[in-house]
Amino acid sequence: MGATPDLFVCVVYAAPVGSKHKNKSLFQNLAVDFVEVQTLGGIILLGRDFNARVATLLDTIDISDLCELLQAPELAKTKQPSVVAKQQNRDANVGSWGHELLDLCCDIGLLILNGRPPGDESREFTCLANGGHNIIGYIIGSLVV
After folding, report:
1. pLDDT one-digit tens code per residue, 34-59
2. Cβ atoms 67, 73 nearer than 8 A
3. Contact indicator for 75, 120 with CB cutoff of 8 Å
4. Is 93 helix (H, G, I), strand (E, B) or coil?
5. pLDDT for res 64
6. Whole-angstrom distance, CA of residue 46 vs CA of residue 50
7. Rounded to whole angstroms, what are the CA distances from 87 to 4, 20, 36, 53, 117?
8. Element (H, E) at 30
9. Which of 28, 95, 137, 145 minimizes the number of CB atoms within 10 Å of its CB?
10. Domain extents for the chain?
């Protein structure tokens, strides 16, 4: 049996975009750290408050988009790894750090777990404040194929 990969657990807090404490390079810094963890064979598990709203935008790269980008339609005909269920989301808005979070997921192979496992198919709201409901708290993990 091979060695078990190390699990890198990180609790993240991204200050709201309008805050004086916001860190514009947070997601870039996380990406650099996570690439290093993955290079060493580690698995990443993130959680907490990203202050990111992503609605149902993809957190993985669509293989057909990749084939088009590479101008290689023949790749679409090859056997693809099993597709992960599309995330469900009751929050229809995209905003705050949403695109940055999705870019991080796509760039280094992370997957938003909210709305995918049994029991959370409807992706329940994670923030009920100021008379509103949204999803800004996530559990995110390495996409292992």
Report:
1. 888 888 888 888 888 888 888 777 77
2. yes
3. no
4. coil
5. 63
6. 10
7. 28, 32, 27, 13, 9
8. helix 26-39
9. 145
10. 7-142
